[in-house]
Amino acid sequence: VSTQSTGSSGINAEYGLAELVKKKMAMRITFHLYTGEEMAERRATMNLRAMTIKKKAHVYLYEAPYPTSDDPTDLDEKKPVLKIKAENWGNFIKETKIVDAVTGEVYAEMSKSAAKEELEEASCKTFLMTIKPGVDVAFMCLCAVFFNVAMKEEGGGS
Fold first, then answer.
1. What is the DSSP string of 95-156?
2. How far apart are the C-alpha atoms of 109 and 60, rounded to whole Å?
3. Among residues 4, 44, 69, 116, which one has the fewest Cβ atoms lying within 10 Å of its Cβ?
């Protein structure tokens, strides 16, 4: 996924598969995930809830026909489908889990400490991701990347 910063508009993927756009004037730090032709289909919304020790996000998914950037962004009665929970130490996120918002079932886990031995020579941006069988690997990776990008955008993680 190729990203570039566009100031107050958020993080955009100019040549990639998805675009993450920060919602302006929101009660919570909110990002919308757009994909499809010309990055016009809003597929998910992520609300960040950044606290000192734990950081988390609620992920809301949309069904076809997908809303566009011109459609209202209110979540009203929509319930989160996924929760992303991260434990951090200082500015560094140690472990992150993507879980079902209702059942708490863990779909994916990311850990820098678990990857340390296998990836001794790797940069600090490298981590090990374990995804439960039968779960959409590409979507879990996309959630992880954009959670990390959103946290950096807000100054809260690596």
1. EEEEEETTT--EEEEEEHHHHTTTTTTS-TT--EEEE-TTS-HHHHHHHHHHHHHHHHHTT-
2. 19
3. 4
pLDDT single digits (tens) 34-72: 888 778 888 888 888 766 567 788 999 988 899 988 888
Give the integer Cα–Cα distance in Å for 31 and 33: 7
Contact in structure between 112 and 123 (CB atoms under 8 Å): no
The C-alpha atoms of residue 101 and residue 103 are separated, in whole angstroms, by 6
Q: What is the pTM of this model?
A: 0.73
- Residue 73 vs residues 28, 34, 106: alpha-carbon distances, Å: 13, 13, 28
Give dist(CA 115, CA 84) in Å, integer: 19
